[in-house]
Write a structure and sequence with these properties.
259 residues; alpha+beta; D-amino Acid Aminotransferase, Chain A, domain 1; D-amino Acid Aminotransferase, Chain A, domain 2; 2 domains; 9-stranded mixed sheet; 7 helices; 27% helix; 31% strand
């Protein structure tokens, strides 16, 4: 764990823990290479402007990530969190000086078993921003797990699907990949899939009742790529689906960028 390139101590990250104001991105790194690295950097720059009204240097981010990875294993998940330790709870409107915290954790090991989701009515605050305000999402994930599921799938009051707690959701309708149309965070993996499929995806509103009619359903995020969903609430899909296997292979074939 490094803050601005040096080992962080508890006093330096107290503001992040107690005030919980900031934004981040997470990415899988293999041999210092990342699929969609430019998209992750663009997200950090864009969200820093929205959250802190401040600029962020993407080249400096790359330098800090490389520094933190100097003694790391070959394959890890890196999280880059941007926050200002000097902002106060009573005065968040002060001019901000963003700091960069880089943390590293082991990746989820393959093969990935199909996930089981429980639906819940919920929308994250400012869903287009990958911010650190995760209480509502994690509380609902906890409820789902206490009920025997792996994760939570968010819907509105009319059962229109948006996203999962930390993943995008996609479905296979015949030969077409469909993304639910709703306010959500558009993840880097979703954007990369749209690029490699080049027009063979679409976006439209999807309700829970329409979801269960899909041939297959999957989740995407930068840590695992494409992961099949085996069940939502009481409905189950047979698996594995050959199209999802092919999609996973297409994603794995994307050339990563050097950090």
């Amino acid at each position: 764990m490094e803050l601005n390139g040096v080992p962080a101590d508890v006093n330096q990250i107290t503001a992040l823990a107690l005030m919980n104001y900031g934004h981040y991105t997470s990415m899988r790194v293999d041999d210092l290479r990342v699929r969609g690295l430019s998209l992750h950097l663009d997200r950090l720059v864009r969200d820093c402007r929205r959250v802190f009204d401040a600029d962020l240097d993407p080249n400096q981010i790359r330098h800090l990530v490389r520094h933190a990875l100097a003694r790391a294993p070959r394959s890890v998940v890196v999280r880059v969190t941007v926050f200002d330790p000097h902002l106060e709870l009573g005065h968040p409107g002060a001019n901000a000086e963003p700091h960069v915290l880089v943390t590293i954790r082991p990746p989820t090991l393959r093969p990935y078993r199909p996930l089981r989701f429980q639906s819940a009515v919920y929308r994250r605050e400012l869903p287009a921003i990958k911010h650190v305000g995760l209480f509502g999402a994690l509380w609902r994930r906890r409820i789902a797990q206490r009920n025997g599921f792996d994760d939570v799938l968010f819907t509105d009051a009319d059962s229109t699907i948006s996203e999962a707690a930390t993943s995008n959701i996609g479905l296979l309708d015949g030969e077409e990949i469909v993304w639910p149309q709703a306010p959500c965070l558009e993840g880097t993996t979703k954007r990369l899939i749209n690029q490699i499929l080049d027009g063979r995806t679409t976006t439209r509103p999807v309700t829970l009742s329409q979801l269960v009619e899909a041939d297959a359903v999957f989740a995407t995020n930068a840590a695992v790529g494409v992961r099949p969903i085996g069940a939502v609430d009481g409905f189950r899909w047979p698996g594995p689906h050959p199209t999802l296997n092919a999609l996973s292979m297409h994603y794995a074939g994307i050339s990563p960028e050097q950090v």
